[in-house]
């Protein structure tokens, strides 16, 4: 990315196609507060071009561009100029040597990513025609064509990187053919005009390449700076970037998950006890599976993982939509006692195939299982154990991880929160392993083929629409291994982009069924969704800003509010013992110029809770925005974003994403127990980081959000009694949120309301005896009221994740250990005391 005083720009892709029809293609974006135009010169001559310029949805004041420059002869130099109504800037100037490096001479481009022998020969990668034609592939053994099966796979990565157009999204291929291992074969790619051949013999296995982008390098810098190296750039210079990155990665991954899992799965003694255990209630669980051309090694592994269950009252129901008889022959030749199998008349699609399997089911509960995945041996036992403890359980889900193609290496665990409504509307986080009571399915219906690809998401949303939240349970244990291989969504989410569109439609249908006025668009990453809740009417929002001196901070804050797009506001500045005459002059200017701004005076000593409660007593609005004076609005429509969520009946308060001036995260939600009591998650991460499974950029429920920017219904504020004035400085927002949750409302965080936060400039450090004493008394107060709740674990977090090792959802070394016991005992608290 380049920038100067007028423009910021980035070129994602620049290519010269030296083919029959020559052209240059340019893709990228320009940041500009005004509409932009381009001038382009090739060989020092102004040339015409075709351009698509449109707003870039994930970056403010930015325009994406896609430019095609038709050429009649070879280019030797290229200059690109961008301009708006006020400025003009040259943003690209390249010559022969650079043009040679970006030149494409071939009509057909082929990249073979993988070639293996696994009962059959499998080749995969991508291929595209520079003419835009569809490509066919055949396999030759010598000069003889042999039978093969070609599946086209979507490659959004190629589209996103502007290597192919969206019309060529299906440039990925997965080719299978019968043959011998290590024998020479020829793949012939044909676009209808020309052909290109690739010879294969030895296996090709994909390499994992880690690319460290500039943001990641800065993250390494920040990390080293945070964890004990005072001069990071000196460290990098002396020790090298490679060594710095190694330190960064080593420190982050000192708890190796593969090793951790093998040490925390139940041992043989525990498994044997589970086999012998007799439950009071032993429901039958029907596992339903749809197979489609399933590789036999995956099929065997899947069946074996079911057979090895310590709880044995189950049946495995398989509906087979394969093009061949491999699965049928295998199952029929093995005579499995607990398998019910039906061979379908062709592939009917994933939903209908799964529904066919469900028709075989006679169980009390239905478990959903993919044909190439694995269950841990205790999976069904844990489900039934929960059902016995909680007979009201209608829907149960577990944590999950991924397993490699060989089934030996486990990685990327997804340790989920307890039921989290808003996270579910951002991403299908529930996924695997899911068990639902059969009577629920009889009521809401089975899978809907209109949402194929996201049929499980649609199904879960319909379950949630029908059930009460307290009927949905989560088991915080890894019970499911999601197979990571060439064709799985686990390996390549972008291989099924059509599934995400189906998910968007499923979410829209969910809102329509609930009478919720909302629209859905894709979020900030593949697989994430963003919901726009319609703001009903123009309710008045009362913005309460405590202030003592700090004129420049307050000015910046007020100016940004006045520039925001939501205008039904009143601003209540609570003056608290300022000494600067300039501040009072500013108050006078504001109140004389704006009728909706008032200044009220709190003459007592600083007490954050009391000051805000006092300000709220003057509020006329239906909604209260608690806002620090050291904030500055980034997204102009932040209030509409927060208000749309807060207007929901189930929501009590909404928190924003707060950013440090260096564009790193200051607030993206609060987890109870972090740093002993409560702490901000993802602190110091780059603002555009996704975080753990996209949580930074997902709307989701937390147990608390910071009051530095918190929107609350006035009715809820009054219902719970406002902020506790016993908490003068620390934890008042945390305790306030806990009372809101206790009153059966949700606390929601949204990343789409973004503000700068210059972090408590209005008060000093907690470093003198008086402040330390006050802080400790506030800890004691919070523990006396909420100690058991905190000790039992934050329902928006997961007990397998650490509370004391950083704040980024880091794996806890020993999940059986309660990390809080020691810390809380130092404050005289013991559980149930």
Could you please describe the fold and organization of this structure?
The chain is built from 23 helices and 41 strands. The relative contact order is 0.06. The chain starts with a strand and ends in an 8-residue tail after the last helix. It is α+β, with helices and mostly antiparallel strands and 833 residues long.
Keywords:
28% helix; 23 helices; nine-stranded mixed β-sheet; ten-stranded mixed β-sheet; alpha+beta; 833 residues
Mean pLDDT: 85
- Rg, nearest Å: 30 Å
In percent, how much strand structure appears in the residues?
A: 25-35%
| Estimated structural class | alpha+beta
Largest sheet: 10 strands, mixed
Number of DSSP helical runs: 23
Number of strands: 41
Shape: flat
Q: Segments where pLDDT lies below 50 for 5+ residues?
A: 1-5, 207-253, 490-495, 760-765
Helical proportion?
25-40%
What is the CA–CA distance across the termini?
A: 57 Å
